[in-house]
Amino acid sequence: MSTVTSLVQSVDWLALAPPTIAAAVALVILVADLFLPAARKPLLGWIATAGLALAALSLLPLLNGDRRTFCLPAHPDVCSYAADPFALVIQFLVLGGALLTALLSIDVIKDQDLPAGEYWFLLLSSAAGAALLPASRDLATLVIALEVASLPAFALVGLRRGDRLSSEAALKFFLSSVAATAVMLLGVSFLYAATGSLHLSRVAHTLTALPDPRLATLASAGVALTLVGFAFKTAAAPFHFWVPDTYVGAPLPIAGYLSVVGKAVGFSGLILVTVQGFPSYANVWGPALAVLAALTMTVGNVAALRQDPRRAHSAVRLLAWSSVGQAGYLLVPIASAGYAHDPAHAIGSTVAYALMYAAVNLGAFAVAALVARTRPANRITDYRGLYHQRPVVALALGFFLLCLAGLPPGIIGLFAKVTVFSAAVDAGLAWLAVIMAVNVVIALYYYLQWTTVLFRGAGETEGAEAPEAPEAAPAGHPARTAIPAPLATAIALAAVLGIALSGAPQLVLRFASGTLL
User: Are 349 and 422 in contact (CB under 8 A)?
Assistant: First the structure.
């Protein structure tokens, strides 16, 4: 009887509040959708937005301590869930990104006649999984959280019924993610067989001294397969092929959600398994991630550079390829952690960069969603003369693009790139720093090219843009319609956050540097 009693433990519901609230509100929406008449369906969007805001606010009581739950009775320091600073900052990023996505979605659902109940249930379910993942401290919880975040996203991408692009995007996303999960589960099973544990702290301890060479070989295979699985999830080259078509086929708010929250999920999982789970294999995953970072940023930026401004959906495709390039930058500090004496500082650079990228990239997608209301093809040429039609919106998009490029007045973008560059140099990865510098210069061209289009006069043409399709001409731009309040709020919030971060960028790095113990 005493043995049974020792297995019973209390659950720290306060620590679990952020993902739990998101999941509970998702269930409320699922039930409410059965009873609400069609005319009242928009109410579901406001319930979802309020739920995400409440989940984000539930992080505030957790700021004062490091709370853990689901711990082993005999080893209270070995836990499956930890609400530590790293988890909290990623949960803030995830829930904040989901909240901005919700604001973008309210009018998109109405305009594109998407099923509201299913949409909001899937979005909140995905956000709950994404909020659970950074607090996961064992491989089983990590994989489950990753799939809870990913599976609803497949359905969200393909939610536009009868749309060929949407169905194709969902299929590509589904197949690539299932392949990644299969590879990752095989790696996790190898690690469990070699170490006898799924908790990251115990896996790390056991990997330092495996008694049998055959177990060491099995563990090495497990580490490699787990890294390959996360490379799919982070859209690292050469596992990035699903990104452009998925972003084009998905509703624009979901494309923005995947570019920010999807990446946060993949990178936080990658950080946990490498720095906390496999520190003794740093000589393996450090060089591997450095090569992946160089390849990913180069492939993404070169592909973005080759986008034809007159091609349908070229704006979304450029943002998609840009997100691949940005994933390469995010990989640099994680690779540097494999060489550094202080991995926490290197990881802090990734967290700081992710916070900057989340705010400005979602802002860019918000403006793209606004333009798509009147220009569904969403070509880059459709943005010509936007400053003369909507000066505030054009200035906001210009600011977002300059942040992504790392140019003033987007100081936070410049600061984030400098911190990532410094992490590579401090780790002795000079060759990677050089490749990053070259890629930053490449990215400057296409970001500035899009920015200049915003301020070009309606009748001006330049070079290859002269023979554009008639429907891309700005003369018929019905741009004087009112901007929906939720969409305007999302753009304003992203801009205010970007400006605030640009005003005090050092606070972001100082806050992020201490996030991983």
Answer: yes
